[in-house]
Amino acid sequence: MDTQTLLRLAHSDPIITRRFGGVFASDQLPKNRGYYRSFIVNTDSSLEKGTHWQAIYFDNKDKYTFFCSYGTYPVGNIKKFIDNNSTQMEWNSKILQHPKTISCGLFCLYFLWHLTRGLSIDRLREINACENERIVARFAQTQFKLTNHSTLLASNQQCKSLQNMSKSKNQRHINRNISCEFR
């Protein structure tokens, strides 16, 4: 999913868009978040094609929740942005996305949709990446009317499957023998 599609989908939701800061490459995040509470950011710089989408949500007490569908910790420019704008932290350490898919953008939207409404994302479980993919795909169909979005492998920044990422910064070991049937 590319930058413009993520931006359009985030702005199509009346709750997310209220205080949505935008979709950024990691080196283009604003220094201060200002009024905004949520952001989607690509781990690559603006000079690169894009590797992986992550999301950040700030609550009204300046605590942030960092979300990565591969369960990684924020690093580099993303960590700097968070440190400049927050005093408390929470992050997802669970691997939720299947390593052969490119659905990280949809996972970010799922995360922001739920947190902006005060809801939990606990329905997603680390032990069942295939079911997580189905949950997020159904969510995208229901909430954003995406019917033909493929999460399988198959301008603006995009994402790559973990299995095909050429960079290994901040990667965790994932069982690559998982297989799912996606429809």
Structure commentary:
- This is Ubiquitin-like protease family profile domain-containing protein.
- InterPro entries: Papain-like_cys_pep_sf.
- This protein is α/β, with parallel strands linked by helices and 183 residues long.
- It is globular and about 35 Å long.
- The protein has a 5-stranded mixed sheet, covered by helices on one side.
- It has one domain: Adenoviral Proteinase, Chain, CATH 3.40.395.
- 26% of the residues lie in helices and 14% in strands.
Could you outline the blueprint of secondary structure elements for this entry?
Layout: H1 3-12, E1 20-25, E2 38-42, E3 53-58, E4 63-67, H2 76-85, E5 88-91, H3 104-115, H4 129-144
Parallel strand pairs: 1-2, 4-5
Antiparallel strand pairs: 2-3, 3-4
Helix pairs in contact: 3-4
From the structure above, extract its key features.
4 helices, 183 residues, Adenoviral Proteinase, Chain, alpha/beta, 5 strands, single chain
| Mean of residue pLDDT values | 85
Strand-residue fraction?
5-15%
Count of individual helical segments: 4
Shape: globular
> What's the number of structural domains?
1
The low-confidence parts are 150-155, 166-178
Question: If classified by CATH, what would the architecture be?
Answer: 3-Layer(aba) Sandwich
Question: Remind me, CATH topology?
Answer: Adenoviral Proteinase, Chain
Please summarize the sheet with the most strands.
5 strands, mixed
Instruction: Tell me the distance between the termini.
Output: 18 Å
Protein name: Ubiquitin-like protease family profile domain-containing protein
InterPro entries: Papain-like_cys_pep_sf (IPR038765)
